């Protein structure tokens, strides 16, 4: 900056300081207004365009308005609440009590389905599923054919499927 431009800027500063101070006081209050006035003039000086401007008052007013917008954005960002996610503390807790209740309900429905089967179908199914016996072993023990074992197991599975049709696995 030359000596003439420094003198011109100083004169401009003295002429516009009061107007800009009133502008900021009405918008942010008495305490913060002087700092914002200084920042606005500093922006104008840093731009290096003061000497080439046709209307520096309009530039100053626009710069003051932009400074208020920037300040509002910063305040809005600083007020945002950020809660860090901690895997150990914030991991979802599954409803174990609900699962136990559902398990008990499921077991009751399963038991009702078993009790509703004929005695032979229930016996074949239990031998196959609980004792882990093969169809051949069941057929030998009960004196029926493999096809008979398959028939009883498929009947039992169909009945259980119907009884538990409304259930789904939670999780």
Account of the 3D structure:
The chain is mainly α and 171 residues long. It folds into two domains: 3-79, Rna Polymerase Sigma Factor, Chain: A (Orthogonal Bundle); 96-163, Winged helix-like DNA-binding domain superfamily/Winged helix DNA-binding domain (Arc Repressor Mutant, subunit A), CATH 1.10.10. 74% of the residues lie in helices and 0% in strands. The chain has eight helices and no strands. It has helices at residues 3-28, 33-47, 56-79, 87-90, 96-115, 119-129, 135-142, 146-163. Helix 1 runs antiparallel to helix 2 (33-47), helix 2 (33-47) packs across helix 3 and helix 7 (135-142) crosses helix 8 (146-163). The longest helix is centred in the N-terminal third of the chain and has 26 residues, at 3-28. The two termini are 71 Å apart. The model has no long low-confidence stretch (mean pLDDT 86). This is RNA polymerase sigma factor. Pfam families: Sigma70_r2, Sigma70_r4_2. It comes from Sphingosinicella microcystinivorans. Belongs to the sigma-70 factor family. ECF subfamily.
């Amino acid at each position: 900056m030359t000596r003439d431009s420094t003198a011109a800027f100083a004169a401009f500063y003295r002429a516009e300081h009061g107007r800009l101070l009133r502008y900021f006081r009405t918008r942010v209050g008495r305490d913060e207004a002087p700092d914002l006035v200084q920042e606005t003039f500093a922006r104008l000086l840093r731009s290096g365009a003061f000497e080439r401007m046709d209307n520096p008052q309009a530039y100053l007013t626009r710069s003051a308005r932009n400074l208020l917008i920037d300040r509002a954005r910063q305040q809005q960002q600083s007020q945002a609440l950020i809660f860090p996610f901690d895997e150990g503390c914030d991991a979802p807790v599954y409803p174990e009590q609900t699962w136990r209740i559902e398990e008990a309900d499921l077991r009751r429905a399963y038991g009702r389905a078993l009790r509703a089967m004929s005695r032979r179908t229930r016996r074949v199914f239990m031998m196959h599923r609980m004792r882990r016996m093969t169809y051949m072993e069941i057929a030998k023990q009960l004196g029926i054919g493999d096809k008979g074992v398959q028939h009883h197991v498929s009947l039992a599975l169909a009945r259980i499927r119907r009884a538990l049709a409304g259930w789904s696995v939670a999780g």
